[in-house]
Amino acid sequence: MGFPLALFAFGEAGMQRATLMFVMLTFLQYSLGIYILNGRGNWTEIFRLPLIYAAIMGISVNLAQLRIPELLLQPITMLGQATIPIMLISLAIAFTMWNRCNGAMRSAARC
Question: Which tens digit of pLDDT belongs to each residue from 18-27?
Answer without folding.
Answer: 888 888 888 8
